[in-house]
Write a structure and sequence with these properties.
Elements (H helix, E strand, L loop, with lengths): L10 H17 L2 H19 L3 H4 L2 H32 L3 H6 L5 H30 L6 H28 L2 H18 L11 H7 L3 H14 L7 H28 L1
Helix pairs in contact: 1-6, 2-4, 2-6, 4-6, 4-7, 4-8, 4-10, 6-7, 7-8, 7-10, 7-11, 10-11
Length: 258
């Protein structure tokens, strides 16, 4: 008689368990959470608030908040997944979890949900500073639209973070995340409006995922007309990063378990 085979828990319940585990793991090191939330708010405080021509203009203030909110999403995704996944791979617990019959789906879903949660938390200081110290004003519908854009914009950078985390060691991943994050942010118009870019930089910028994400978020939150190429560019980069993430995951799996 064949012995009964124990069934695994439902997929959603496993994904929820992984999400809860990873959130608890992060909040147990408060400086990691604070550091993730701090920089975009400080950038708004030191670089936008003192410029009263921008801070006292409701539309320009909302645009600045949208730009730094997009940077907060990029930073949370790349550091949470790029550096975080690489660190987890060095632990003995990581290969054990990957041998369990639940498969990779619930665990990756937990990582993505964890990253989106911290993307949303990173918006809190930016929005609070904007409300208290600038004239930023928008309609409730556009504010909700901006909030809804957080998980949308997070998708390509989540995939990029996974690709870095599964392809590189912990030390290399942190260096690569920093080397990718800040050039993309500067060239994508997240620290200064792309309208002041020289022509050559503006042309390069329009082909970057950071610029496409920035243009879409600014368009949703301010109503300003955005580039028609923004959505195709972001979708194209999402496809590229998805291929890289899947390739890095399979390569890592092949090196460890075959």
């Amino acid at each position: 008689m064949t012995p009964p085979v124990a069934a695994t828990r439902p997929w959603l319940r496993l994904a929820w368990l992984h999400t809860r585990f990873q959130v608890l793991e992060t909040v147990r090191v408060p400086i990691a959470l604070i550091g993730n939330m701090l920089f975009p708010g400080l950038a708004l405080l030191f670089f936008v608030v003192p410029q009263r021509a921008v801070a006292d203009d409701p539309l320009a203030s909302v645009g600045a908040v949208a730009q730094l909110g997009t940077f907060a999403v990029m930073s949370a995704c790349l550091f949470t997944l790029g550096a975080g996944v690489a660190e987890d791979r060095q632990l003995a617990f990581d290969p054990y979890v990957r041998t369990l019959p639940a498969g990779a789906g619930p665990r990756l879903a937990g990582r993505i949900a964890n990253a989106v949660l911290f993307c949303l938390l990173a918006q809190v200081p930016v929005v609070l500073i904007a409300v208290l110290l600038t004239s930023a004003s928008t309609s409730p519908g556009r504010a909700l639209g901006g909030l809804a854009m957080v998980p949308v914009v997070a998708v390509p950078f989540t995939l990029l973070g996974l690709a870095i985390g599964y392809a590189l060691s912990s030390k290399a991943a942190i260096a690569v995340v920093q080397a990718v994050l800040f050039p993309l942010a500067f060239a994508g118009g997240l620290f200064m409006p792309p309208e002041i870019f020289p022509r050559w930089l503006d042309l390069i910028s329009q082909g970057l995922p950071s610029r496409a994400a920035r243009d879409l978020v600014v368009q949703v939150t301010t109503g300003a007309e955005g580039s028609p190429a923004a959505l195709p560019v972001l979708l194209s980069w999402t496809a590229v990063f998805a291929v890289l993430a899947v390739g890095a995951y399979r390569r890592d799996e092949g090196r460890r378990f075959r």
